[in-house]
Every structure is written in structure tokens, then in C-alpha cells.
Amino acid sequence: MTAMARRARGVTLVEVTIVSALAMLVVLGMVGFYVSSQSSWLDGSSQALAQRDATLLVATISQGVRS
């Protein structure tokens, strides 16, 4: 085979399989990061809501005591 004929062969099934496996690992890592970030955001959001409700409750109780 000449050098030009070797370059024109294309890709092998092994190469495609390896690239697909590496791409899948990258995608799985990104999905895991997204799910983890979303979970952290939901936890922080629910904590902020609970703190807001507690502050409102304390303000209501203190107004009732002062009256």
C-alpha cells in the first residue's frame, strides 16, 4: 500500500468504540455534576424558605407580645 492509500482507509471499529466510550464517560460526568448542582440548589432554596418563614413567625410573635 502506498502512503496515500493508508491515509484514505478511514477509521476502524476499534477507534470508533474507544472514542464513543470516552465520550460517554464525559457525558456521564457532566450529568452527575448537573444532578449534584441541582440537588444543592434545591437544598439551599428550601433552607432559605424555612428561614424566611421562621423570621416571619418570630416577627408575628414579637408583635403579639408587644400588643
Q: Would you write up a description of this structure?
A:
- The structure is a single chain.
- With 67 residues, the chain is mostly helical.
- Helices cover 88% and strands 0% of the residues.
- The protein has 2 helices and no strands.
- It has helices at residues 3-7, 13-66.
- The protein is rod-shaped and about 95 Å long.
- Helix content class: over 70%
Quaternary status: single chain
User: Mean pLDDT across all residues, rounded?
Assistant: 91
Q: What string gives the helices and strands in order?
A: HH
Main sheet attributes: strand count, strand direction, barrel closure: none
Q: How much strand content do the residues show?
A: under 5%
Strand element count: 0
Which regions are unreliable across 5 or more consecutive residues at pLDDT < 50? none
Structural class: mainly alpha
The 3D shape can be described as rod-shaped
User: Span from first to last CA?
Assistant: 98 Å
Task: Describe the secondary structure blueprint for this structure.
Layout: H1 3-7, H2 13-66
Structure in a nutshell:
This protein has 67 residues and is mostly helical. The chain has helices at residues 3-7, 13-66.
Structural key phrases:
67 residues; mainly alpha; 2 helices; 88% helix
